[in-house]
Design a protein that fits this description.
This protein is an alpha+beta fold. It has a single domain (5-179), classed as START domain (Alpha-D-Glucose-1,6-Bisphosphate, Chain A, domain 4, 2-Layer Sandwich), CATH 3.30.530. The protein contains two helices and ten strands, in the order E-E-E-H-E-E-E-E-E-E-E-H. The protein has helices at 43-51, 157-179; strands spanning 5-10, 13-19, 22-30, 56-65, 68-75, 87-98, 101-108, 122-123, 126-137, 140-149. Strands 1, 2, 3, 4, 5, 6, 7, 8, 9 and 10 form a ten-stranded mixed beta sheet that branches. The chain starts with a strand and ends with a helix.
């Protein structure tokens, strides 16, 4: 199996595997009516959930300060028929605001299980999630995600493309929503 590969590409969205358990995702967002950097904050997590009720069963956030949150995201049990467990993410997310962009860094919290997660749900353990929001101009941002899953996670090859399709669906909705905001 060739490790480096584009797994899914559609409408300017590219999801690629760089190496085993390491993936990238890239897309751009543009809206001439708003200054995009002002909407790139932790409220995007809530927006992702609100726009994707068919993908997420539950999302909660605990704000530690303006640049740190703890997020719990429980996906719906989408692949139960394939024998896969329901998945959840439990992340400590930090935000860094820089002159040329906004950076989000996250890691899975593995030391304890959040409340309200079904007993048989499995942590989608990420060793590193980095989201770079490069401000091209006030009305355009290029997004670059790097996701490194825990080495113990086994992602079957057939599931990789499904992940790309789901991520495309999630971020396409968010992108369309933000790009269609008019002030």
């Amino acid at each position: 199996m060739d490790l480096e590969a584009i797994l899914y590409e559609k409408d300017g969205f590219i999801f690629s595997r760089i190496e085993k358990n390491k993936y990238t995702m890239n897309f751009a967002m543009e809206n001439k009516d708003i200054i995009l950097a002002k909407v790139i904050d932790f409220n995007l997590i809530k927006l992702i959930y609100d726009l994707n009720g068919d993908v997420y069963e539950k999302v909660s956030m605990e704000t530690l300060n303006e640049n740190d949150v703890i997020a719990t995201l429980l996906m719906k049990h989408l692949f139960e028929d394939l024998g896969l467990l329901q998945r959840y993410s439990f992340l400590h997310i930090k935000r860094f605001v820089e002159e040329t962009g906004i950076l989000f860094k996250a890691q899975s919290i593995k030391s304890y299980r959040p409340t309200g997660i079904p007993k048989d749900a499995e942590l989608m353990a990420m060793d590193d999630l980095t989201i770079v929001c490069h401000i091209v101009n006030p009305h355009k941002i290029d997004f670059s995600f790097t996701i490194v899953f825990d080495p113990m996670m086994n992602i079957p090859p057939f599931a990789e493309k499904l992940v790309g399709i789901i991520l495309n669906k999630i971020f396409k909705r968010v992108k369309q929503f933000i790009e269609n905001v008019r002030i």
